[in-house]
Amino acid sequence: MNRTKLVIGLLLFALSLQAAPIRQEPHIDSLMLSTKGGDTVYLAFLHDLYVYPAMRFKNRRQEKFYWRTVRDVKKCLPYAKMITKDMIYADAELAKIQDTKEQRKWWRHFERQLYKKYEKDFRNMYASQGQMLMKLMARESNKTSYELIKKYRGKASANFWQMIAKLFKNDLKEGYDGADKDRITERVINLVEAGQL
Asked: Closest Cα to residue 9, out of 22, 17, 39, 34?
């Protein structure tokens, strides 16, 4: 008897939903209802789904490299996106300031804010995560680390940091190549962004 009342109540509730006009929201939600000519249509917006062939590792070293890449991408990708937003903001603000002296003053202040914002997190990163952050910044901004340093700190500073990077067998002038050299990283990024990894 109680089960019958529950089913009847649910049916009446569903019928009342169909009879009431459904207001369309301006933003897209993951699940929406739309009424057309008395019919209710359920709309679902899904994320992209990436399908790659299964990873085949030749040895334990390759498998460790892959899972280290996953760890590093998961840690560094949010930072790369935040830093890119900060760069876009800085570029817009610097474009508003006409005086070169005022631009330098504003940049020094903004640089101190960025240092406070990111210093603690960056100090706890592994060297491989620092390298991954450089790759992801090149991917997000379409500029190498060398070009970014040169743009914001000058050519002398960019050359100094390039020399330091070379001592540690890195290259700030190296770009991001998701189609060839960095294809494993690109795969991991796509899977992480889609929530599949």
From this structure: 17
